[in-house]
Design goal:
Two copies of one chain form a homodimer. The first copy, chain A, has 301 residues and is of the alpha/beta class. Chain A has one domain: Ribokinase (UDP-N-acetylmuramoyl-L-alanine:D-glutamate ligase, 3-Layer(aba) Sandwich), CATH 3.40.1190. Chain A contains eleven helices and 13 strands. The radius of gyration of chain A is 18 Å and the shape is globular. Chain A starts with a strand and ends with a helix.
Amino acid sequence: MSLIVTGSIGIDTIHTPTARAENVLGGSCIYFAAAASFFSPVRVVCAVGEDFPEEHMAVFEQFKIDTQGLEKRAGSKTFRWAGKYLDNMNDRETLDTQLNVLGEDLPIVPESYRDSRNVFLANTHPAGQLALLEQFPGARLIVADTMDLWINTANDELNTLLSKIHGLVLNDSEAALLTGESNMVAASHKIIDLGPKFVVIKKGEHGCLLNHKGSMGVLHAYPALHVVDPTGAGDSFAGGMMGYLANCDDIDERAIRRALAYGTIVASFNIEAFSLQRLTEISRHDIDQRLDEYAECVRFD
Amino acid sequence: MSLIVTGSIGIDTIHTPTARAENVLGGSCIYFAAAASFFSPVRVVCAVGEDFPEEHMAVFEQFKIDTQGLEKRAGSKTFRWAGKYLDNMNDRETLDTQLNVLGEDLPIVPESYRDSRNVFLANTHPAGQLALLEQFPGARLIVADTMDLWINTANDELNTLLSKIHGLVLNDSEAALLTGESNMVAASHKIIDLGPKFVVIKKGEHGCLLNHKGSMGVLHAYPALHVVDPTGAGDSFAGGMMGYLANCDDIDERAIRRALAYGTIVASFNIEAFSLQRLTEISRHDIDQRLDEYAECVRFD
């Protein structure tokens, strides 16, 4: 079933305690789309500037991403981000943000995309997410991501968004900020009360927590030994999850849990190298193999 | 098979953001022993002062704890601790510590305890743990806990201890301090290199990680909605784990994982009330029932 993601494409410069990558491909949209592509064809709605390097298009091609909705905007510049990971490889500082085309009009959704059945609204201003959501009248599954900035500055629009989506994906500090609850189980219940049928709270190296209509599920992360670059972990997690769900007839709790396990595994590959590098090297077979290994890791019967 | 724990008994005063408990029974030894008692008879080696309130002995009786090794030392005072949990109910500040009897000679191990087959050396100075360990010549399973204080101040003794025990249980910040690794998978491998066959790294609300001879296991914590008092969570976790293992013929990876799941569940009950209160209200049946519920929570097949 068709899957679409709306989000950002960026040029990233990433510093880690031991290495650095300059001007590499990044942004929520490409991490999501690459991850989802192992499970389902995927469409993107995003904008880049006329400075967007042609060589990066090879990545879209490799993952067979439908780029009809990738707008190369004349007179605009591509979003740029630079960040530095601290020694724990979990916390990071933003060194530079140049919104560029992300600060302009939303990209246009091609007419041919309006029949999309599964929609992921990657993190952007909730007013923008609402405007995009309206363009997919036939969607059967709409999931959004958000962040602290919008919780703090656009709470009304965010609440409207929450009343219109099926699922929300956010990290633990954002869930605490949104609900005022430091206990993530309590926070997840409060989010369900705000509208979504399910919420996924991401906890980085600790895994994630699912609340589906009040019923809890928890998954520990894959025990990753070599973390090179955590950038895109959350987006590739969401991509793996949504890619799997796009193929499910019923979006029930069982399907979502399986989807979260797949998201966990794709993210565990993604962090093994800078940018999209590691995802370009693996196949669905590698993902299934690691999922089996992970299932062994969490057994206690 | 016989199980023994050496550790502290204390009188605690605990402040949480919403409540307070004064002069309640605490200490690693009693949390461990109460938790273990659901699975196995348990012996304790510990010392209290002559001020130890007689009413607390009822708790030992309820859990059928063998108190031959509980020394009530004339002229001494019981260990006292006061602490305050922060809003997240995970971090805490120590308000007061009165070592009292814990700062004196080690308690004497009764002759009748020297045949103990399963030994847990709860957190104390590693020199003390080494001295106690020597008194159980027939032990087939020796597991120790430690803390940042000893990693910083008694590293040589701790290294000797690590070469003589089968398992180590410690929390994530302690594992990072001990190994210089912020990645817990890497830290666990370094600890295995120091001697133990297995290490369990506790991550509080996030669960735990097992490294058994290089093979990894991970368990998310039980998704607890109502946390009243986290004191003793780690000790009741270890007690549930060791109580289960005391009944296993083979201490292999499978047995340890099952033991960790039981530890997870006992700890999840323990934090639902102050001191030992919640453990006095439950039965082995309640533990098994919640284990089944937890097993459902982590499924993704």
